[in-house]
Amino acid sequence: MIRGLYLAACSSLIALIFLCLAWELRLAPIQPGGSWLALKCLPLLAPLFGILNGRRYAYQWASMLILLYFTEGIVRATTETGMGQLLATAETALSLVFFCATVAYARLTRPSAQKSEAPARP
After folding, report:
1. d(C-alpha 22, C-alpha 2), whole Å
2. CA–CA distance from 61 to each of 38, 102, 105 (Å)?
3. For the segment 97-120, what is each residue's pLDDT rounded down to a tens digit?
4. Residue 62 in contact with residue 47, Cβ under 8 Å?
């Protein structure tokens, strides 16, 4: 269970980083030729190594950070059309997967949860 949450969090975070770069540099930039909005992927790099190394604290604060990307995805999915709308929907889906995986991972790896799962000694 924990391994699956780890893989979901890692893969959705990496996919979201690449989506943000591709979206603003190539697929549907705000300005032709790309825009500075591609820098929005930089905050996603901050928790990357903590997520990849399974650090519980990184999962906790990254679950709050990702809400900004979820919000942007919802706003742009409802205001843009065409390719921009599809990319915003993908951003929303990836951020939702990441949020659910990080919250569940942080909850299942808390010290009190691990003690309660240990078998009782006779």
Report:
1. 30
2. 22, 9, 12
3. 999 999 999 999 988 866 655 554
4. yes
